[in-house]
């Protein structure tokens, strides 16, 4: 009898506790904004508090940050984003991943490119031999800020660092092209073309050189055709006729050494190849 | 080595190695070091860095615990159980007793560290990190740090109770790892007397962070050979000073 009473008491207790838990849950919105940060000491303080285990402290904070910033239902999770990554990178300034991942979260998730650039600048300053931070910063300027001049500065810096991959130089030359300096871009691509160690680089340089050269020469040829038409009240039969009448010294050829395509019916001068890049 | 000292060394080693706490700490040290693999899964980017960081920190932590726990009881237990009378009644001087105790404990420590480091070294290689000789260099430096800690705990063990020895040794261990803040602190002070006091403490207290080359080893940054040499010489000098102090205290101690 007493045993049954105790069992009943235990069961009722559990049921009551479950009911209370349910009531408790109804008062809390687990998916609402929440204060996730009680306190995060500055990097220097945390380094001292880690008593020699600062590498581990940085790892744990970094791993936590990855999990935290992947928790999408916390809408105010970016409140202290910069502080978190500043702390991690202050504890172990040579730990490269937090700069890259942190800036990625800042740019892609928080949509704060200047913040991402600040973190990458810090990484570059603390690790002057590492090209990765300038490369990433250059990409953000190019892709999201459309600030080609600034991107070019970053790529220039990255390209000068040891171990920088060849594509950084290519990217740099392309940025010069995008910011409307075809002469400089042509020289840069020519340099890449001459020193290309592999087919991919050579092909890429050829394509760019072709387009830059064609983009410079086609409007000039087109203007000469128009001039010819105005003077002789007909279109030239071929581009070489422009040279015959002395309007041009010789018919220019594209980067591949071929003649440009001339349509005698419409008077349009085009390139044999399709242009791959558009200036924005 | 004198036969009397050798005897104390062997006995101390046997006594420490028979301690269940010793095996428990070695076991957990290895367990935590190997579980670093799990932690490394949680990161993005260089997982090997996290694996090494966590593993080295686990071995470091448990070795320090072993050094402190075995060291603080060493002399005190002999006095408490009055076995010190038996030893000192034989042709063994008090100086030899202390030196023998230190060497015995050092041997225990280095055996534990050797076992943990060998397992972790192979574990890193099997996890794809290759034979990272830098890790072995780190363990050598950790060995020196542990010897300093052993000498500190032995010093306290020679004149106070295990609880107080534990508190003092842990405090010195923690302070030893924030000595770099002393210089910054000194720069903030304006009173010359305070500055001088901080300066004295800076040279007097053990500077243990110089043995902490985890960052350089894990990130593969260059180590200055001169810095390493001075760290080794510092450890040897500091241990000699601590042992001399311990002997000095132990000589004057009266047993009841």
**Quaternary assembly:** heterodimer
Distance between the termini of chain B: 30 Å
Secondary structure category of chain A: mainly alpha
What is the level 1 CATH name of the domain at 41-164 in chain A? Mainly Alpha
As residue ranges, the low-confidence spans of chain A are: none
Radius of gyration of chain A: 32 Å
Supply the number of structural domains of chain B.
1
Q: Indicate the proportion of strand residues of chain A.
A: under 5%
Query: How big a fraction of the residues of chain B is strand?
Result: under 5%
Query: H/E order of the elements of chain A?
Result: HHHHHHHHHHHHEE
Number of distinct helices of chain A: 12
Explain what this protein looks like in three dimensions.
The complex is a heterodimer of chains A (280) and B (256). Chain A has 280 residues and is an all-alpha fold. Chain A has helices spanning 2-26, 43-49, 54-69, 81-91, 97-109, 113-126, 132-145, 148-159, 166-178, 182-194, 199-232, 240-244; strands at residues 261-263, 268-270. Among the domains of chain A are: 41-164, Serine Threonine Protein Phosphatase 5, Tetratricopeptide repeat, CATH 1.25.40; 216-270, no CATH class. Chain A has a two-stranded antiparallel sheet with strand order 1-2. In chain A, helix 6 (113-126) packs antiparallel against helix 7 (132-145), helix 7 (132-145) runs antiparallel to helix 8 and helix 10 crosses helix 11. Chain B has one domain (3-252). The mean pLDDT of chain B is 87. The chains are: A mainly alpha (280), B mainly alpha (256). The interface between A and B is medium-sized, with 19 and 27 residues.
């Amino acid at each position: 009898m007493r045993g049954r009473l105790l069992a009943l008491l235990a069961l009722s207790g559990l049921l009551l506790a479950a009911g209370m838990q349910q009531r408790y849950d109804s008062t809390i919105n687990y998916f609402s904004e929440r204060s996730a940060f009680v306190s995060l000491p500055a990097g220097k303080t945390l380094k001292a508090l880690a008593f020699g285990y600062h590498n581990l402290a940085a790892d744990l904070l970094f791993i936590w940050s990855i999990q935290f910033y992947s928790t999408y239902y916390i809408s105010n999770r970016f409140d202290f984003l910069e502080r978190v990554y500043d702390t991690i990178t202050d504890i172990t300034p040579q730990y490269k991943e937090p700069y890259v991942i942190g800036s990625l979260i800042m740019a892609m998730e928080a949509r704060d490119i200047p913040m991402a650039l600040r973190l990458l600048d810090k990484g570059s300053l603390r690790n002057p031999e590492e090209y990765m931070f300038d490369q990433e910063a250059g990409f953000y300027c190019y892709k999201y800020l459309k600030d080609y001049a600034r991107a070019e500065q970053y790529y220039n810096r990255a390209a000068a660092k040891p171990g920088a991959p060849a594509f950084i130089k290519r990217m740099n030359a392309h940025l010069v092209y995008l910011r409307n300096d075809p002469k400089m871009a042509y020289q840069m691509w020519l340099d890449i073309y001459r020193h290309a160690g592999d087919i991919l680089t050579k092909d890429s340089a050829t394509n760019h050189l072709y387009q830059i050269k064609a983009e410079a020469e086609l409007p000039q040829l087109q203007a000469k055709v128009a001039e010819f038409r105005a003077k002789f009240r007909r279109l030239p039969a071929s581009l070489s006729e422009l040279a015959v009448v002395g309007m041009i010294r010789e018919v220019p050829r594209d980067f591949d050494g071929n003649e440009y395509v001339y349509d005698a019916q419409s008077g349009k001068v085009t390139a044999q190849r399709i242009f791959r890049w558009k200036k924005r | 080595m004198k036969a009397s000292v050798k005897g104390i060394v062997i006995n101390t080693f046997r006594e420490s190695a028979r301690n269940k706490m010793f095996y428990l700490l070695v076991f957990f040290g290895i367990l935590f070091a190997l579980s670093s693999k799990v932690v490394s899964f949680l990161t993005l980017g260089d997982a090997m860095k996290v694996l090494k960081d966590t593993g080295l920190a686990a071995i470091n932590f448990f070795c320090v615990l072993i050094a402190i726990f075995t060291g603080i009881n060493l002399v005190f237990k002999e006095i408490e159980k009055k076995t010190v009378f038996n030893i000192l009644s034989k042709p063994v001087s008090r100086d030899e007793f202390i030196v023998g105790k230190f060497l015995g404990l050092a041997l225990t420590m280095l055996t534990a560290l050797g076992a943990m480091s060998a397992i972790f070294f192979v574990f890193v290689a099997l996890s794809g990190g290759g034979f990272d000789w830098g890790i072995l260099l780190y363990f050598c430096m950790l060995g020196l740090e542990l010897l300093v800690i052993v000498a500190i705990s032995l010093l306290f063990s020679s004149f106070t109770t295990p609880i107080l020895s534990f508190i003092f040794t842990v405090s010195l261990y923690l302070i030893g790892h924030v000595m770099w803040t002393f210089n910054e602190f000194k720069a903030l002070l304006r009173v010359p007397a305070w500055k001088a006091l901080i300066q004295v403490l800076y040279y007097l207290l053990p500077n243990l962070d110089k043995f902490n080359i985890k960052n350089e080893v894990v990130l593969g940054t260059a180590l200055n050979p001169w810095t390493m040499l001075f760290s080794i010489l510092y450890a040897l000098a500091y241990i000699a000073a601590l042992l001399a102090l311990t002997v000095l205290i132990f000589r004057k101690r009266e047993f009841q």
